[in-house]
Each structure stands twice: as structure tokens, then as C-alpha cells.
Amino acid sequence: MVLDKKTISKVLEDVYSSGSKDSIIKSGVIANIMVFDLEVDIDLVMDNPTLQARKKLEGEITTTIHKKINSKAKIKFNTKIKKQPKPENQSIKKELSGVDSIIAISSAKGGVGKSTFTVNTAAMLAKMGCKVGILDTDIYGPSIPTMLDVEGYVPKSTKVDGVSKINPIESYGIKLMSIGFFTKLDEAVVWRGPMASKALKQMIFDTNWGELDFLFLDLPPGTGDIHLSLVQSIPISGAVIISTPQNVALADARRGIKMFQQETINVPILGLVENMSYFISDEEPEVKHFIFGESGVKYLAKDLDINFLGEIPIFKSLREASDFGRPASLQEDSVIENKFRDISKVLVEELIKRNTELPPTKIVKITNLVGCSAINKKS
Ligand code: ADP
């Protein structure tokens, strides 16, 4: 076959990008093809901004042309990502009209303490008098029902203005909706992929949140398609990234930060939190043991010019309280309580700076409750 534009378009009618019913020719993913002798320049416009999806599609196109037309063709790609509209349409705003700020809690790696951070910060803010909710979307291990002692609870349905909604489960003053209320542990695998994104989005919009100052969105670990789909379709006010100071975790954290900063996503990063910073034994309380390395997250924050919200050491009691189902930040006058109080203050200050939609009366209310200063970009 001849290596020309017409033939290439014809053979690419059999190539599909993931999640699309139409071929890349019909759906307009192939924006342009130019052929110069053996060199083929292809312009791609993709919806899916992940590097993985891009590499996969470029690989399939190259293989198809090599196999069906000319194995010597040199194919160059100029790939652009289609701009996604921000989730600002009126129906989304109306559905979540009682929720003032949505804070995504993210960790690119699993097991670094994302859920522990979410639960203890939410409990601290609830204790201060704020109205707080958590949406636990961690499909790989929804641990928040256990941490809030409501494992096995079944949310009840209700009607709000004639529309069916689900009531969240309340514990320690926090309204919780979790993927864990609807799945059994061994069913987690069924939730992967587009089905998970759809179910999770539905969960946020179908929950009867009522009035909330803060809704924490506990994301599954990673930076794959489920995350992209969630952060693109939910009006997130800001994101917090949790990492341990360990090198492998830091590399993943960088990837997580990049995801939120992508042009098509553009969610403000409120800051980084370093968890499991060090360990202090009862025998030698003056010695800090830097088990996962020293200050790695602090340096990363500095390097990327992102706020550092604080460090949380390894506390045996933090782990025990999580397993027992009572957030450790609720222990009066404890080191853990003080840590979470300080971090919550900085977090809320950063949020107020960025959430320019917060009315001044709300800012005054929150800053009085949390005890932080009100510096809104508008003022
Ligand atoms: P993730 O949500 O990132 O998967 P978790 O919050 O479930 O991680 O934490 C993983 C485990 O580590 C849990 O058993 C939790 O109790 C424990 N853990 C997290 N942070 C700390 C800490 N600072 N000190 C002690 N144990 C911790």
C-alpha cells in the first residue's frame, strides 16, 4: 500500500482510543496527517491526559501503519490534550449548594496515612465547631468507617425536595459517606475503571450533605484515570498531598502534584503534609529516629514552591486510636491534638486564600472557630 494521507486515514479507521465507541478518525482524535516521503507527522487531540493513555494510543497507531502500510515509516506525533470544561455548570453547583469548600486529600502512594490524616483533621475541625463531611472514595481499601467506628453501617435513603438522596452516617460530628458502606472487602476489584468513577461521582451528588463548611474527599491512592475523572468533575476548592519522607513515596508525590497542576485540571494545591516524619521511643524521648529519611517532604515543598502544612511523627497511639475507631486528635491536651490543631489552622488559612467564592460572613465564622487569620484574595 502507498504511504499517503488517504491510506493512513483508511487503516486508522480500525484504531480506537480507550473509552470511545468511535474510531480515532471518526471521533476527531486524529486532527491532521502530513506525509513527507517516509516521514509521517500526525497531530492528535486527546481527551485523556494521562501519559499512559497517550503512549498506548501512539503505540497502536505506529504498529498499525507499520504492519498495514510500510514498516519503514518514521512516525512523529504532536499530541495535544483537549481542554476540559471546569465543573461550573449550574446543576452541579445546585446539587452541592450547601457545601462551601471541597478539599481533596490525595497521596500518590498507598499506606502513607491519607485516611488517618483525613479522619483526624476532620475530627479536629468538627471539635472546633465547624460542619464537616468526609467522602471516602478509596476503592482499594475504604478504612474510614473503621476509623470512625461505623463499620458495617448501612446508610438510609431519604427524599429532599422530592428527590431521592442517601443520608450520610454521622460519627463524632462528622458526616461520612464511604464506598465501604456499599462493598465487601473482597469485591473491591469490581470497582476499578470507569464504573468506579461513575459510582463515586454519583455518591457525592446523591448524598444528603446538608450544610457543610468543609467536605473532605479522600481519594484512592494513585494518579490514574479514576482520579482524573473525579477531580475533573467535582468542584474541588483545593488539594492536600500526603507523603512520607521516603524517596519512593516522594517520587509518587511529585506525580500527584503534577496531576493537580495540569492545565486541564488546575486544582490549587493547599500544601504538602509529611506523615511518619520520625519516631520517638518512650525510653529515649529526646531522640528522633528518622525511619523514612529526614524532612524529604519539606524539601520537596520548597523545591516545588508549594506550602508545607506540617509534619506528623509516628505515634503508636495514632495507629491504636484508628484501629479502635476514635480519632486520636480528639484526645484532650495530647501532642497529637496539638499537631492536628496547628495543621488544621494552616490548612484553613490556605483554603480561605484560594476559595474566592466564600462569602465574608462565612470567612469570619470559620476563622473564629478555627482560630486563624482571614486573608482572602478578594480583601
Ligand atoms: P492510606 O490512607 O494512605 O492508605 P492509612 O491512613 O490507612 O493510609 O494508614 C496506614 C496505616 O498506618 C494505618 O494502620 C494507620 O493507623 C497507620 N498510620 C498512619 N499514620 C501514622 C502515624 N503518624 N503514626 C502511626 N501510625 C500511622
Structure commentary:
The protein has 379 residues and is α/β, with parallel strands linked by helices. The chain is built from twelve helices and 13 strands. It folds into two domains: 77 residues, GMP Synthetase, Chain A, domain 3 (2-Layer Sandwich), CATH 3.30.300; 278 residues, P-loop containing nucleotide triphosphate hydrolases (Rossmann fold, 3-Layer(aba) Sandwich), CATH 3.40.50.300. The strands form three sheets. Strands 8-9-5-10-4-11-12-13 form an eight-stranded mixed beta sheet, with helices on both faces. It has a three-stranded mixed beta sheet with strand order 1-2-3, covered by helices on one side. Strand 11, helix 8 and strand 12 form a beta-alpha-beta unit. The protein is globular and about 80 Å long. The N and C termini lie far apart (66 Å). The mean pLDDT is 87. The chain binds adenosine-5'-diphosphate. The site of adenosine-5'-diphosphate has 17 residues, from helix 4, strand 12, strand 13 and helix 10.
List unreliable stretches of 5+ residues: none
- What is the level 1 CATH name of the largest domain? Alpha Beta
Largest sheet: 8 strands, mixed
Helix content: 25-40%
Extended strand count: 13
User: Which ions and ligands are bound to the chains?
Assistant: adenosine-5'-diphosphate
Order of adjacent strands in the largest pleated sheet? 8-9-5-10-4-11-12-13
